[in-house]
Specification:
The structure holds 2 protein chains of 2 kinds. Chain A has 11 helices and 2 strands, in the order ααααββααααααα. By secondary structure, chain A is mainly α. Chain A has a domain of 203 residues. In chain A, a hairpin with a 2-residue loop joins β1 and β2. The longest helix of chain A is centred in the first third of the chain and has 29 residues. In chain A, 53% of the residues are buried. By secondary structure, chain B is mainly α. Chain B has a domain of 200 residues. Chain B contains 13 helices and no strands. The radius of gyration of chain B is 19 Å and the shape is globular. The chains are: A mainly alpha, B mainly alpha. The interface between A and B is large, with 42 and 39 residues.
């Protein structure tokens, strides 16, 4: 029972982790809080579903939807980041709240407010490992999420562009003076953030069979919570934070009751903010290393 | 007035009160996106008092406001450690915790997720709401003319310097949270007794965000900003009815555009000075 719940928690946590990464990329690199990530997540699921309904296989629909949400984030960059570079950090946050409202209403108008779900995309095979029941669809979803997160981490740590991102995270001005193409890095960061949020949306839609214009709000806030718990502005922290929040949520529902769910999560985040603002990972990951 | 206009103006009054409740901590540089939580505390406490204890409306409102203020002060102390976005997140968590509290606890008294029914044996009219609005505006008028108001402004502009010149910023920031929470609590009480029905879902994250938007859009540097912001954002949707389903999307566009055009809000401090409106005086500046 406990291991089964732990696995469910990891499934949910992988979604939160991806949203937390999307927040973290922007906050860590560009010090921008993009509140609209929750809605970008929702757009990812809706685009993915639309492409699947158009007859594309999932393996094509998923990258296409990721590109679409990446472009959505570039639009956000154009209107909420670029013109507001010199404003206090609160102003871009408010501007992205505007985008949040905009995306949600546009989605309702175009796709309607009813819940939809993905058609069955593969024949699920159930594995019984001791008392634990795991289906092959869950494994594929989890595997893809893990691959995506590992690939992103490798990209940031190992490649030239990733080094550029880390340099911009230290200081945008210095990086620009030293010859980093900061404009490219900014656009890339926004695109990557949107793409991973969109991927999270599709995977969420696949594993929990809910796609609706209102699906973004709750996971969005849980993603912010994961980012805070994992220590702001660091991808590995976001992954661990997401898993942590997911597991806490599932375990509190299983052992205390569904009324305890949000108490446990928000109470934890509240305490994390007050007692360990550097996040639970602050010890393992030196504070200096952002993204 | 028709009942439609009456409803519109009463919600306008409540929104102005709520905007002022966010303005208060904002005047010391603290953004709160959890004020729906304080509103919920005021609404539930005062409604429980009038329904179960049969207290008259006025003391219930005051006790509801004080309950919210006590929680606000208790929250204000730990919140001193946090700044900017971190503080905003903490207030957001606070609002959600309060909403979940009323969703899951005190069910026999408040109805929990089913909503609080049966409020209603107290006389209330729109003048109650606007009376409180007038009272708050008088309070902020005298505050802005006092030494305390100057200290608030200094704290907002530069905390370190204000502390160096001897302003007690710990007191100011915590008090600002408490006063803001009190106003939100009273607004919640008025809301509960005017509309006769409340449920925890009314006080969700979006409600808190909208209250904060009134202030940021209107201008967070003067107390006229929140009043203007709340008025525009309550009345604008009524004038946009011809857009039908696209109203919400247009609203989002307005926010984005306004942030680009006027990042510090519609009303700024300079605009309250007469010489701002006299063109030739401005040209003389170097």
């Amino acid at each position: 029972m406990f291991i089964q719940q732990l696995f469910n928690g990891i499934m949910l946590g992988s979604t939160y982790a991806m949203i937390a990464i999307a927040f973290t990329l922007l906050l860590g690199t560009l010090n921008m809080f993009n509140f609209a990530i929750g809605e970008v997540f929702m757009l990812g699921a809706i685009f993915g579903l639309t492409f699947v309904h158009m007859g594309l296989p999932l393996s094509v629909a998923l990258p296409l939807a990721m590109i679409c949400t990446g472009v959505a984030c570039l639009v956000i960059e154009r209107f909420s980041f670029k013109p507001l570079r010199n404003a206090p950090p609160l102003i871009p946050l408010v501007s992205t709240i505007g985008f949040s409202i905009f995306f949600q209403n546009v989605a309702v108008n175009i796709w309607g407010s009813e819940r939809a779900q993905f058609p069955q995309w593969m024949e699920p095979i159930n594995f019984h490992i001791g008392p634990v029941l795991i289906s092959s669809t869950q494994l594929v979803i989890l595997g893809f999420a893990v691959c995506l997160m590992v690939a992103l981490d490798l990209f940031i740590q190992r490649t030239r562009l990733g080094r550029g991102m880390r340099a911009v995270a230290e200081s945008l001005e210095t990086a620009t003076i030293l010859g980093v193409d900061s404009r490219l890095i900014i656009l890339m960061t926004f695109f990557g953030s949107g793409a991973i949020a969109g991927a999270g949306g599709i995977l969420f839609g696949l594993s929990f069979s809910i796609v609706s214009p209102f699906m973004g709000m709750d996971p969005g806030i849980k993603g912010i919570a994961s980012m805070i718990v994992g220590g702001m502005g660091n991808v590995r922290g976001a992954i661990v934070g997401g898993m942590f929040i997911g597991i806490i949520e599932v375990l509190s529902v299983a052992y205390i009751g569904s009324s305890a769910r949000d108490f446990a999560v928000y109470g934890l985040v509240f305490l994390a903010l007050l007692l360990r603002p550097q996040g639970i990972l602050g010890v393992i990951q030196p504070e200096k290393e952002r993204i | 007035m028709s009942s439609y206009q009456l409803d519109l103006f009463s919600s306008l009054g409540i929104n102005i009160l709520l905007a002022l409740s966010v303005y208060c901590p904002m005047a010391t540089g603290q953004l709160s996106i959890g004020n729906a939580g304080f509103m919920a505390i005021g609404a539930y406490v005062s409604a429980m008092l009038t329904v179960h204890v049969h207290l008259p409306l006025f003391p219930s409102l005051i006790i509801g406001g004080i309950a919210a203020a006590i929680i606000g002060v208790l929250f204000g102390f730990p919140a001193l450690r946090l700044k900017g976005i971190f503080l905003a997140m903490a207030t957001l968590c606070f609002g959600e915790i309060v909403r979940n509290f009323f969703m899951n606890f005190l069910q026999p008294l408040t109805g929990g997720a089913y909503g609080f029914r049966g409020i209603g044996d107290v006389p209330i009219s729109i003048s109650w709401i606007w009376g409180w609005v007038a009272l708050s505006l008088v309070f902020f008028f005298f505050l802005s003319r006092s030494r305390l108001g100057l200290a608030l402004m200094a704290t907002h502009d530069d905390e370190t310097v204000s502390e160096l010149i001897g302003i007690n910023i710990v007191f100011l920031k915590v008090a600002a949270f408490g006063v803001g929470a009190f106003i939100a609590g009273v607004a919640g009480g008025l809301y509960a007794h005017y509309y006769l029905y409340i449920e925890p879902e009314f006080f969700n994250v979006w409600e808190s965000i909208f209250i904060a938007l009134y202030v940021i859009m209107g201008g967070m540097l003067t107390y006229w900003g929140p009043v203007l912001g709340a008025s525009i954002f309550t009345l604008l949707p009524e004038f946009l009815r011809f857009l039908q389903d696209w109203r919400g999307a247009f609203f989002g566009v307005v926010i984005i555009g306004l942030m680009i055009a006027r990042p510090s809000g519609l009303v700024t401090r300079e605009m309250l000075r007469i010489d701002f409106w006299i063109p030739y005086r401005k040209r003389r500046k170097p």
